[in-house]
Amino acid sequence: MVAPQLNVNFAGVRFKTPVVAASGTFGFGREYGELFDLSRLGGICVKGLTVKERHGNPPPRIAETPMGILNSVGLQNPGADVFIEKELPFLRRYDTTIIANISGNTVEEYCELAEKLSEARVDMLEVNISCPNVKAGGLAFGTTAKSAALVTEAVKKHSSVPVMVKLSPNVTDITEIARAAEGAGADALSLINTLLGMRIDIETRRPVLKNNTGGLSGPAIFPVALRMVWQVSAAVKIPIMGMGGISKAEDAVEMLLAGASLVCVGTALFSDPLAALRITEGIGAYLERKRLDSVSQLTGKVQPYQL
Amino acid sequence: MPELCLGRVADNKKLTETVRALTVEAEAIARRAAPGQFVHIRCGAENLLRRPISICDVSGGAVTLVVEARGAGTDWLARREPEDVLDILGPLGNGFDTGGRRILLVGGGIGVPPLLYAAKKAAGVKRAILGFQTEHRILLEEEFKNACDEVFITTDDGSAGEQGHVTAPLKRLLDRGAADAVLACGPRPMLRAVYELASQYGVPCQVSMEERMGCGIGACLVCACQTRENGQLHMRHVCKDGPVFRGEAVVW
Predict the structure, then answer these.
(1) Does A67 touch chain B (CB under 8 A)?
(2) Distance from the Cα of residue A103 to its chain's centroid
């Protein structure tokens, strides 16, 4: 039997495998690049970029929770110009798809970022309208259908590469935001960003995070992410990159069956830096076991009960 | 470049009621480890995050890691037995510069262990001031006496050595001009006091900082440490830029 096809055509962009490193957990690839060959990844979503350099929130920025972590990094990054000049050439040495994750305080900033980064020839944009850890912009754009559509439409006008919109789970109805982004021209969606959470130190009566609240990720949120991808995939026609707590190949297969065409691996890298590679191998093994030719045959193939 | 490897536990020695010294055979890490660096260890399936543990000593192909059981992860680690296998990433971070004619090592509590390897690697005259809460929490006194020319012990309650903080003997040594370089590891308030005192005497001070970590390699950016370098503020990271920083660079 021929080895199953792992490559995916996602909104016109080729990914050699369905497994992508999640934004915010992977920096610009340099550190993990010392541990494995980045060309073995389907793609890399780089650390969220802003127009100007951001120093992020004061520490502590992380707290462990049962099967999860809370983080409040606050979009620390050197700014898009430094990324284009110093980091993108390094990433381009690898045979993998590069997705630039962008965050603005205003619609104009999103547009400026879209223009700069598509001119710099990243393969795709991931528009972050769902960061829970910054005051201005960030999550605010992702919590109403109207503002999500506004940002999406503006970014589309200023981008020459496909645009994916990253959705927040911190909303009443994620399918409403998904439809709004699709209606405004989004080429794809990614979900979910982290769930807003909190921990308190009962001795000091202080929040564990200096930012008081943070974004929850890790296996604890996987069932929530899976449910949301399933709901969104029924609501839109554009492809979905599914993420949220995927830590093993079986999780990734569930996510694909729920409706995702690609999966992102993030927090799992902290316990196992090679998690993305192990998940890729495991997906291949599953396809062989099920005698399927291509990973695309899994997307949306869950057979829900009819109620 | 860090290595991801499996290390076999060769020994687990009780140092105090809550502190253990694990000897772990990890040739690839031992070969490249420098004083002040750390390893990032997976602590069982139930703990999502690895735990950063500083390298206390290196001998042949093994590293000694001193672990204080104070949470789920370190408790798991402290209970490892010979022949158990650990998933270790390391060596990580930037360690101590052990150059200088007269080195003064200042450690507090569980911050003491990484200074031992620094003492062993330093070529000059070596003195150590080691501070603990109380007598039964003293760590590695014999090892430091073997590695250093002079060792001073302080305890908060006076149950052993000199009563009080490490800063009292530090001031006396600085008064007599006994140090060209201070290397410190311990709780943040201690590090700040040691740095401020050393700087009054114009003696450069390196401090090993601690912060809650995620990836351990500089990708996730959670273990932030604010610095001022050439008048510019930066947000550095303890795992990659540190854990050892120049005292004057840290925004205390």
Answers:
(1) yes
(2) 13
